[in-house]
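Chapter summary example: a protein plus 4-nitrophenyl beta-D-glucopyranoside.
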Amino acid sequence: MAQTQSAEWQPPAGLLPKTFLHGYATASYQVEGAHDKDGRGPSVWDDMCRVPGQIADGSSGDDACNSYYMTDVDVPLLKSLGVNAYRFSISWSRLIPQGGKDDPINPAGIAYYNKLIDALLAHGITPFVTLFHWDLPSGLEKRYRGWTSRNVLDDFQNYVRLCFKEFGDRVKNWITLNEPICVVMFSSLGLKPDWDHEKDFYPIAHHLILAHAQTVDIYRREFKPEQKGIIGITLNCDWCEPIDDSPAAKQAAQRRMDQSLGWVSVFTHLGHYPKSIEDKAPKFTEDEWKLIKGSSEFFGLNSYSTLYTNGESDPDDHLGGNTRAVRKKDGVHIGNEGHLEWLCDVPWGFGKLLAYINEKYMLPNDIPLIVTEQGFAVKNEHLKPLPELLKDTERIDYYRGYLKALTEAISKGMRCDGYMAWSFIDNFEWKEGYIPAFGAVHVDRKNGEWTRTPKDSTKWLKSFWDRVVEA
Ligand code: PNW
């Protein structure tokens, strides 16, 4: 087993420079709570959680991890875990409760993020800020069906300008959108009775890409000369391994890679579509292409798993939804299974993905990789008593294998400037509610105090970075 072999592995001491950013990630709706406090407006996820049957455990992000009120606990805790960076996202409807460009701004929302940013900096932690991690203001969904409408572009421009203006003096690392492909997919879930999958998919993808490109353009022209930060997009991709040697399985795996990276990164980094989706993709004007190409200053990657891909699905499926499996036909399992059906511990798959991304997207564009999310929800961790779940050896095995793959790729010359583990704390895992636990820190949601208790993996990660990053 890969796990046993890598258990004896010693990470290379001093491989990475002091400037390498390492830490944990979260997202506003998943951790903040305080959903109706201090003037915050509702987001589409508040609405989603109110539709019966949408969230596995019937929960919501109403209180989430109470992070809105716990900056004074969380930031010193992060410091004690040895990080030098923290990735979080800004809630659009906390800053502009109704979302639109002519709608009022909420000063309490600005004050909250100022407090968080200042506390991080005071503890020597670099803020890494996502502008959009899925929580679109409900107001905009009601007004014009959100991302399906081109109107969203003006409202997004107004929102990001506000963020750069208010926070850009101290925030030097920006992510425009988190996993745009998931925004497209989640937009299709339950929320909208009038959703037409085939019809709405392409406009949503189109507007997300334009929103990203326009945001980068605004930053570069209006803010970057003075603020001197970097800006990019985060994409999710899990490696797709063909289930056998058949041409159909190989094509299906390639098609799925193109669907997950191609929709956005090919736009962003290369300026053209992958062949397999060329005919169906929305068309941009010449001027739009100019904005889109080269509009990411790093390759932000969220990657968790690897599954086998077979060729039994419809090649025209616009979601790349060919069937995936955790076992080959001979019954051999791909890797230790986590709590979600798509989540397996497959370090060799991550290694293959790194080589693929490096060659295809990073090298031609001379941009570094930043791993913006990676992590593991241990199966049934939520059912274990606290002392037992804190001994999260499966999560440690996972990080050991994946970080071994990463350091090997770096030793072979791949440029990587940062790594954020998902997640800092157990949090609201969208449609799955609070059942899967991705946190390196446990959160007690029952005692009324949201008490944080670090799991053993935090110690492993700390000693890993202590060794690998130059003192
Ligand atoms: C990411 N999939 O989403 C998100 O950025 C996080 O907010 C989330 O909590 C984390 O991964 C863990 O799931 C994904 O079905 C959600 O393959 C689903 C998938 C991938 C990523």
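Key point: The chain has one domain: 21-468.
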